[in-house]
Design a protein that fits this description.
By secondary structure, this protein is mostly beta strands. The chain is built from one helix and eight strands; from the N terminus they run βββββαβββ.
């Protein structure tokens, strides 16, 4: 069993990162797209990226479309986004739940293993 969830916090504006494209890739035997989602008004995906039926231990990349998110935000005043896609590479083990938040501004990001 196990599951993988995520959410995005827009630290520049102090609110959830709504409308961020999220892609999950397995790195086992190459890079393979496993799931896609878009964050909702709360900055979360509506469903886990991996759940009990799809969870497999291994190495993954979570790709967040942050450049596109901030491109229309007005925070960079007409400049192209500094960040493009933010990629978080992680290793998931069987029998555990994972939550990977992304705290982001147009110029920086941070992540951690949440609960």
């Amino acid at each position: 069993m196990g599951r993988l969830t995520t959410h995005v916090l827009d630290t520049a504006r102090g609110r959830p990162g709504a409308g961020v494209q999220v892609k999950l890739f397995s790195l086992e035997g190459g890079r393979h797209l496993v799931a896609t989602a878009v964050t909702n008004a709360d900055g979360r995906t509506d469903a886990p990226l991996l759940d009990a039926g799809t969870f497999r231990a291994g190495n993954y990349e979570i790709e967040f479309g942050i450049g596109r998110y901030f491109a229309g935000s007005g925070l960079e005043q007409g400049q192209p986004p500094f960040l493009g896609d933010v990629v978080v590479r992680c290793t998931l083990q069987s029998g555990q739940d994972y939550h990977v938040p992304l705290l982001v501004s147009p110029w920086s990001y941070s992540t951690y293993r949440g609960s």
